[in-house]
């Protein structure tokens, strides 16, 4: 039986790209900055990294680059004394064979789990039976334990039902899910389920939205895979710790600030996360088309006040 990742706060890490030589050029991997950011997160209490997920622009990264990036981060974390630091590798393909190929590459490069996004291209025609059988076909052959990535916002509104999750939880190579949506009812049904196959040491659920951390942990969730933590890792880790210690009054205060900051991630996605990393941590990155880096100053001003609050919290925790 595959074990899920340890509970805690994980970061869906942006993929850092260098400036191309020309306007028509494709930005290349910036492994030096990628390493600096990864080690900063690890030293700030982050439990593990999710590489090449939706925030990592997985659909714009080749399989060769996948191998290079994952191998490099595994080597660098090992060199830094972080042996076996949890690395989850995302996939965002539509086909079973392509997904298996990416999972094999990820395992060979040092990842310990695969975060498999639901295939949304034919969303209006896909049944729950079809979704269940797709994940089973992948889990039967995957060299990595499979983590279900439930993100209707990037999967053409495709959603797995609670009964589909329950059925998949009995598969020995499926060990949990990342739920990136606002449906707290689904979080509750999965994380509070009394079924043996849904026990937390067999099937762990993580929210993809840090603004939900307090309610999700109270119903039995394992933690968060959270974009704001790419910018303010100590703050989100502190929120997790306050909730686990049942210091709820303090947790509620910090949750409110985090929830406001998360608006940047929800509203601007990868571009917003990279802009926040640049402005707060000083590490710049291009995006790959069709995404374009940067935010106009008037849009950034909407987030200045809450980011100043978050920077104060982060510095206080340093």
Q: What is the radius of gyration?
A: 19 Å
Give the helix proportion (percent range).
Answer: 40-55%
Strand count = 8
Summed over residues and divided by their number, the pLDDT gives a mean of: 96
Order of helices and strands: EHEHEHEHEHEHEHEHHH
Give the strand line-up of the largest sheet: 1-2-3-4-5-6-7-8
Helices, by number, come to 10
Low-confidence segments, given as residue ranges, are none
Keywords:
single chain; 318 residues; alpha/beta
Description of the molecule:
With 318 residues, this protein is of the alpha/beta class. The protein is built from ten helices and eight strands. It has helices at 31-43, 63-79, 96-108, 128-141, 162-169, 184-191, 213-218, 233-244, 248-281, 297-316; strands at residues 8-12, 48-51, 87-91, 113-117, 146-150, 174-179, 204-207, 223-225. The chain has an eight-stranded parallel barrel with strand order 1-2-3-4-5-6-7-8, surrounded by five helices. Helix 8 (233-244) runs antiparallel to helix 9 (248-281) and helix 9 (248-281) packs across helix 10. The termini are far apart.
């Amino acid at each position: 039986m595959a074990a899920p990742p340890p509970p805690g706060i994980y970061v869906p890490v942006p993929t850092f790209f260098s400036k191309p030589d020309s306007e028509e050029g494709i930005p290349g991997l910036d492994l030096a900055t990628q390493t600096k950011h990864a080690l900063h997160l690890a030293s700030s209490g982050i439990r593990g990294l999710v590489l090449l997920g939706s925030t990592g622009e997985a659909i714009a990264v080749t399989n060769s680059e996948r191998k290079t990036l994952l191998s490099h981060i595994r080597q660098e974390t090992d060199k830094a004394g972080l042996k076996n630091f949890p690395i989850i590798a995302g996939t965002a393909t539509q086909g079973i064979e392509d997904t298996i190929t990416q999972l094999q590459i990820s395992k060979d490069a040092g990842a310990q789990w695969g975060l498999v996004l639901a295939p949304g291209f034919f969303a209006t025609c896909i049944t729950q039976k079809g979704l269940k059988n797709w994940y089973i076909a992948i889990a039967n052959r995957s060299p990595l334990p499979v983590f279900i990535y439930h993100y209707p916002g990037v999967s053409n509104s495709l959603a797995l039902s609670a009964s589909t999750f329950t059925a998949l939880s009995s598969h020995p190579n499926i060990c949990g899910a990342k739920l990136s949506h606002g449906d707290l009812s689904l979080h509750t049904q999965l994380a509070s389920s009394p079924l043996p196959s849904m026990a937390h040491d067999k099937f762990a659920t993580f929210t993809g939205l840090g603004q939900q951390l307090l309610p999700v942990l109270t119903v039995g969730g394992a933690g968060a895979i959270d974009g704001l933590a790419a910018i303010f890792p100590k703050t989100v880790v502190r929120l997790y710790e306050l909730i686990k210690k049942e210091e709820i009054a303090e947790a509620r205060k910090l949750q409110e600030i985090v929830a406001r900051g998360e608006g940047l991630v929800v509203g601007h996605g990868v571009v917003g996360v990279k802009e926040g990393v640049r402005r707060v941590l000083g590490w710049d990155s291009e995006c790959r088309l069709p995404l374009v880096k940067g935010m106009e100053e008037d849009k950034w001003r909407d987030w200045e006040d809450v980011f100043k609050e978050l920077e104060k919290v982060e510095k206080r925790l340093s």
